[in-house]
Amino acid sequence: MNSRKKIRVAVIGVGYLGAFHARKYSMIEEAELVGVVDSDPERAREAAGRNSTEAFTSCEGLAGRVDAVSVATPTESHCSIGLYFLSRGVDVLIEKPIASSVDEAELLIKEAERSGAMLQVGHLERFNAAIAAIDGLVKDPVYMECRRLSPFPGRSTDVDVVMDVMIHDIDIILNLVKSEVRGVEAVGMPVVTDMADIMNARLVFKNGCVANITASRASRDKVRTLDIYQNGAQLSVDYMGQSLKALRPVAAKDALYPSLVEEDLSMEKRDSLLEELKSFVRACAAKSAPVVSGADGKRALEVARMIQEASRRAF
What we know:
The chain has 315 residues and is an alpha/beta fold. It folds into 2 domains: 7-124 and 273-291, Rossmann fold (3-Layer(aba) Sandwich); 126-270 and 302-313, 2-Layer Sandwich (Dihydrodipicolinate Reductase, domain 2). The chain is 32% helix and 28% strand. The strands form 2 sheets. An 8-stranded mixed sheet has the order 8-9-10-7-11-12-13-14. Helix 1 (16-25) packs across helix 7. The relative contact order is 0.16.
């Protein structure tokens, strides 16, 4: 791509996550970070200074100056900001969840289709090395067990734990199972905020697969694991360690039952956010489909809403 024009990018919202977006873009050779936007002028100036770019307090200042943007603002503003740029033919990466409602997600998808701009959703775990390594290994899973636990982070309090962290696992599961959800059971409770900080959900798919997901942002320890059970193998993903292990039955001579043999599938660890943004920039340059589409984001949001509703019915 050295002979091609760099993709001019900007980050909208440079709070905790947006600040990382700005930093990573400045590391991508094929991208030019032309600015950062934040309603807090001081925060915008600080982020701009750290990344040798320009600070703005409104999106209007970027008119005609960008090819693509990352939207890392609070969820309630995803739709309005996304529509602003998509309607002007600017490619957009919106952090998860795609929007506050399924209707808003649909508006974003339709505007991207109308304008021809690309819409990608920031489901970061798709770019985790361990998740990339299971590609081709998952075949007709029967049961999945997900655990995503952490101490309270003191941020993202505009949404509950489902929209904050569980939606990562929802997206991964939907991408692996490739079947419609038939039923949902869930139970959750607030611990630190006035919204659910702990949630357990059980998803039953039309093809028979069952997924059990536990998410907490009020736990003592940090755990991020995914176990996949299918005929002939159990696959265990450690998101934080970016590791993958397979447990398979192997016939043993003169033994009544096979032995369970564990295989450690090695891989090169990588910066998931950097890989996500590189993928976005490449898709912008090639005018190709993103790894995580607007439709993917909408589907994850639909199931997240189903979980929230099931939890409300439980009490």
